[in-house]
């Protein structure tokens, strides 16, 4: 399973690179206000800056070159975007599902980036203060991702009609069934990730659901004219891909923790046996 979960980092990196390209394109055509993650205001300089930063981070993560540092800085960038630009919009329109979803999509990406950093080895020695901040951010990553998943589930219930309309007619079961199913799946996965109860399997299944969304719902839309020219369609599609990668990153994070725990328990058991052997 670890081999499959490792691909989560690649999926996440691809999405980040695409976000970077979209931000640069929108900045070039002075369309920075379009809905491209991480939803910076209509400012050409900010769009260029975030685009270049996202491109650098995505390529670094994909190439495994200073990937841990890139993931940490990426998580901080997403977190700053939420705190500086999006919280105020959510507070001003708390009942607007679209604005809330945008904010928590950015927060989920933040959580995925920070959790990714927790799966990667340290790349050098830093000051105690920096390491303390980094460790705190990494520990918060899964909670940010979990909270976002719960919010996505609640928002699905609030816009069931829209979700039903997005389900292709050829998928069996009916759109209403899948709308309810995905809403419940989001909430269950978020609770599981937050509480660590079956968290690895919940993350695997959540990532698989996002990946299916990308392949079955979004990919056909972004290759069809005129949607292929719409940055919003590309952004929505690669948010799904990025969150698929983020979910598998969470799964790998939990798998690594389980492996370390098992290894420590084995070492303790061996030490106890070694101490008891001379007395037998």
Report on the architecture of this protein:
The chain is mainly α and 280 residues long. It has one domain. Helix content is 80%, strand content 0%. It is built from ten helices and no strands. The protein has helices at 2-5, 7-28, 44-63, 67-92, 97-119, 128-158, 160-166, 175-195, 199-222, 231-276. α2 packs antiparallel against α3 (44-63), α5 runs antiparallel to α6 (128-158) and α9 (199-222) packs antiparallel against α10. The radius of gyration is 20 Å and the shape is globular.
> How much is the average pLDDT?
90
Count of extended strands: 0
Rg over CA atoms, rounded to whole Å, is 20 Å
Q: How much helix, percentage-wise, in residues?
A: over 70%
DSSP helical segment count:
10
Concise description?
By secondary structure, the protein is mostly helical. Helices cover 80% and strands 0% of the residues.
Q: Topology of this protein?
A:
Layout (H helix, E strand, L loop, with lengths): L1 H4 L1 H22 L15 H20 L3 H26 L4 H23 L8 H31 L1 H7 L8 H21 L3 H24 L8 H46 L4
Question: Which structural traits does this protein have?
Answer:
single chain, 280 residues, mainly alpha, 80% helix
């Amino acid at each position: 399973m670890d081999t499959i979960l490792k691909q989560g980092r690649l999926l996440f990196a691809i999405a980040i690179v695409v976000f970077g390209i979209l931000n640069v394109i929108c900045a070039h055509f002075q369309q920075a206000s379009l809905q491209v993650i991480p939803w910076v205001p209509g400012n050409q300089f900010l769009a260029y800056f975030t685009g270049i930063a996202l491109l650098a981070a995505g390529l670094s993560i994909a190439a495994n070159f200073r990937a841990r540092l890139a993931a940490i800085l990426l998580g901080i960038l997403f977190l700053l975007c939420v705190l500086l630009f999006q919280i105020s919009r959510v507070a001003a329109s708390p009942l607007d599902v679209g604005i809330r979803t945008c904010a928590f999509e950015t927060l989920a990406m933040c959580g995925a980036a920070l959790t990714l950093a927790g799966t990667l080895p340290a790349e050098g020695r830093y000051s105690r203060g920096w390491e303390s901040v980094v460790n705190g951010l990494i520990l918060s990553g899964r909670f940010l991702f979990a909270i976002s998943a719960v919010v996505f589930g609640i928002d699905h219930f609030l816009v069931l009609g829209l979700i039903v309309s997005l389900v292709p007619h050829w998928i069996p079961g009916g759109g209403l069934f899948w709308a309810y199913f995905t809403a419940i799946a989001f909430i269950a996965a978020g609770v599981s990730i937050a509480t660590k109860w079956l968290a690895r399997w919940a993350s695997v299944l959540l990532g698989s659901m996002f990946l299916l969304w990308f392949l079955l719902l979004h990919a056909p839309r972004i290759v069809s004219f005129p949607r292929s020219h719409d940055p919003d369609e590309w952004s929505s599609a690669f948010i799904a891909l990025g969150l698929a990668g983020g979910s598998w990153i969470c799964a790998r994070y939990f798998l690594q923790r389980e492996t370390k725990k098992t290894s420590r328990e084995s070492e303790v058991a061996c030490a106890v046996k070694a101490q008891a052997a001379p007395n037998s």
